[in-house]
Design brief:
Helix 1 runs parallel beside helix 4. By secondary structure, the chain is of the alpha+beta class. It starts with 6 loop residues before the first helix and ends with a helix. It has a domain of about 150 residues: Butyryl-CoA Dehydrogenase, subunit A, domain 3.
Length: about 325
C-alpha cells in the first residue's frame, strides 16, 4: 500500500500548516478560555476548508492533523468530521451549505454512558460546540435522526466544563425537540462512526506531535550539569519511544482513512485501531513531555498545558483506548 502523499495532498498539508501557525497561536487558545468568541476569526479562515467534510477521509485527516497540532478551537471538527458525514450518509441537501462553510452543525449520539454508539437515551452527552453550531443531528438507537435548528435546543443545553479548554462540550436534553426527521441504515451509521473515530485519531496524532516537538526542543535548550538534558540516556530513551509511538499511530490513521475511502470490509477494525494507537501515542507524549519539561511544564505561564489538555480530552472523547481495544476484540472473536 502506497502512503506517499500526492502533490495536492502535500499542498493541502503545507497550506493548512501555514494558515494555522499564523492564525492559531497559543495566545488565541488562552483568549478562548475566557471568551469562546475569540475563535471566531479563526473560523473565518477554516471555513474555506469545510469542503473536506463529507469528502475523502484521507484529505480530512491530513487537515485535522494540523488542527490538532495547534489545538484549534471552534466548530470545524464538529461540523466537518461529525455533522457533514451524517448529512452525506443521508444524502441531505444541507451538506452543500456545510461544505461551503456557510452553515455549521454538530452531532448528538452518545448517551448517558458516554459511548458513541446509537442508543435511545433522551439525554445526549459529549455534544461538541453546540452553542455555536447552526444545526444539531440527534441520532437515536433505531437509526432515526432529528435534524434540528440549534436555536430550538438552546434551552436544553448544559455546558460541561472539562480539562480541555479549547473544545466546548455540552449535554442535551433531546426529549421533545422538533426538527426534520430522517433515517440512517445500520451500515450508514457504522460509516459515520468510523469516520468520527479516525478523524479524532488524526487530530490526536497532531496534538501528540506538538507535545513531542516541544519536549525535543526543550531537551536541547535546558542545561543541567553543564550539558543539555537531551544528552542524557534516560531522556533519549523516552523521546525515542515517543517517536516510535507517533510513527505507529500516524501509519494507523492513514491506513484507516484509506480503508474508509475504499469501503474496505476491514475499515471498522482499522478505525478502532487508529483511535487506540493515537490514544497510546498521546498518552505517552503528554506523560513524557511534562517529565522532560520538569517544574516549568506544570506552570500556567508555559504553553505546554494547552496541548496536554487537548490530548487528555481527546483520549476520553469518542471512547478511551481501552474501550477501542474491547471493540477490536469483539470484531476479532465475533
Amino acid at each position: 500500500m502506497d502512503f506517499t502523499l500526492t502533490e495536492d495532498q502535500t499542498l493541502l498539508r503545507d497550506t493548512a500548516r501555514n494558515v494555522l501557525t499564523k492564525q492559531c497561536p497559543p495566545s488565541l487558545l488562552r483568549a478562548h478560555i475566557e471568551d469562546p468568541a475569540a475563535a471566531a476569526p479563526l473560523w473565518e479562515h477554516l471555513r474555506a476548508y469545510a469542503g473536506l467534510g463529507g469528502g475523502a477521509a484521507t484529505d480530512l485527516c491530513l487537515f485535522l492533523e494540523e488542527t490538532g497540532y495547534v489545538a484549534a478551537p471552534g466548530p470545524f471538527f464538529a461540523s466537518s468530521a461529525l455533522f457533514a458525514p451524517v448529512l452525506a450518509a443521508l444524502g441531505h441537501g444541507l451538506l452543500d451549505d456545510v461544505q461551503a462553510g456557510t452553515t455549521t452543525g454538530t452531532v448528538a449520539i452518545a448517551g448517558t454512558k458516554g459511548e458513541w454508539l446509537p442508543n435511545n437515551d433522551t439525554t445526549k452527552t459529549f455534544v461538541l460546540e453546540a452553542d455555536r453550531a447552526d444545526h444539531i443531528a440527534i441520532i437515536q438507537g433505531s437509526g432515526d435522526v432529528v435534524l434540528a435548528p440549534a436555536a430550538a435546543a438552546a434551552e436544553r443545553l448544559r455546558f460541561v466544563e472539562s480539562v480541555d479548554t479549547s473544545r466546548r462540550v455540552f449535554e442535551l436534553d433531546a426529549q421533545g425537540i422538533e426538527g426534520e426527521r430522517c433515517s440512517l441504515a445500520p451500515d450508514a451509521i457504522g460509516r459515520v462512526l468510523d469516520i468520527a473515530y479516525v478523524a479524532l485519531a488524526a487530530e490526536m496524532v497532531g496534538t501528540a506531535r506538538r507535545i513531542f516537538d516541544m519536549a525535543v526542543a526543550y531537551a536541547k535548550e535546558r542545561y543541567q550539569f553543564d550539558r543539555p538534558i537531551g544528552s542524557f540516556q534516560a531522556i533519549q530513551h523516552k523521546l525515542a519511544d515517543d517517536a516510535l509511538a507517533l510513527e505507529r499511530s500516524t501509519a494507523a490513521v492513514h491506513y484507516a482513512a484509506m480503508t474508509v475511502d475504499a469501503g474496505d470490509p476491514e475499515r471498522t477494525r482499522a478505525c478502532h485501531v487508529a483511535k487506540a494507537a493515537a490514544g497510546d501515542a498521546a498518552r505517552r507524549a503528554l506523560k513524557d513531555g511534562i517529565q522532560v519539561h520538569g517544574g516549568i511544564g506544570y506552570t500556567w505561564e508555559h504553553d505546554l498545558h494547552l496541548y496536554l489538555r487537548r490530548a487528555t480530552g481527546d483520549e476520553y472523547l469518542l471512547g478511551q483506548t481501552g474501550w477501542h481495544h474491547d471493540r477490536i476484540a469483539d470484531l476479532l472473536f465475533a
